[in-house]
Write a structure and sequence with these properties.
Shape: globular
Strand order of the largest sheet: 2-1-5-4-3-8-9
Helix content: 25-40%
Strand content: 15-25%
Bound molecules: nickel (II) ion
Structural class: alpha+beta
Radius of gyration: 18 Å
Number of helices: 5
Length: about 220
């Protein structure tokens, strides 16, 4: 591996860790801020937290879709970007593991991956990326305005971070990372948020928790 690439990978890794920490802290504060009732102080007790809403986006086959196309399904939604070196692939892998652990009950759940980086995550990029994770995973991208609107309604924190070019090393075009919050949103067919899973929640915990919530209406 040449030195320039090594340097770039190292920088991306450091930026990603910083971005993750900042993103997680901000998302946590946002969620805490939303909760006025101390009895709801568990990360999984989300009743009354208004999250989500209508959207119009483009799926990974190039088809225009809206939230109503998924209206009859439970939804497990992750927001991230395909260039993410660690957290997004880990969380999407966990999503797949959790669904696989649920057997046929998982057929009622639609896994969705919505990009926070529409500039680089084109339909083609999304198509090859989602195929790495789950056969039913739907990738969604859109115009910057469409993405901004869906991020806002799900209260996702996402921000572009330009790398500081190292001395004598011009930053390549598109060489940036994204600072973002990381939650898996579990939504029922009526659009109500049932749970938000954090990076520290395991696939086994998620599978068990989702199964329980699907049984109790
Ligand atoms: Ni990420």
């Amino acid at each position: 591996m040449n030195d320039a690439i090594k340097k770039r990978l190292k920088r991306t890794a450091v930026l990603s860790i910083l971005a993750l920490c900042a993103g997680a802290a901000i998302a946590y504060l946002q969620v805490q801020h939303e909760r006025s009732n101390p009895a709801q102080n568990s990360p999984h007790a989300m009743a009354g937290l208004k999250i989500g809403g209508p959207f119009t986006l483009m799926d990974h086959t190039g088809k225009m879709v809206t939230d109503t196309d998924f209206a009859s399904d439970y939804k497990l939604i992750y927001f991230g970007f395909t260039y993410c070196p660690a957290i997004c692939p880990t969380e999407l892998g966990k999503m797949t593991q959790a669904l696989n652990a649920m057997g046929t009950q998982a057929d009622l759940i639609r896994p969705l991956f919505i990009t926070i980086d529409p500039e680089r995550d084109t339909v083609d990029t999304m198509r090859s990326y989602v195929s790495l994770f789950h056969p039913r995973l739907t990738g969604l991208t859109g115009t910057p305005e469409q993405i901004e609107s869906v991020l806002k309604s799900y209260r996702v924190y996402a921000r572009k971070v330009d790398p500081q070019p190292a001395e004598g090393d011009a930053a390549a075009l598109g060489d940036y990372t994204m600072d973002h919050s990381s939650f898996l949103y579990f939504i029922d067919p009526r659009g109500e948020l049932l749970a938000m899973y954090r990076t520290q929640d395991t696939a086994a915990f998620m599978a068990e928790d989702m199964a329980k919530r699907m049984k109790t209406p």
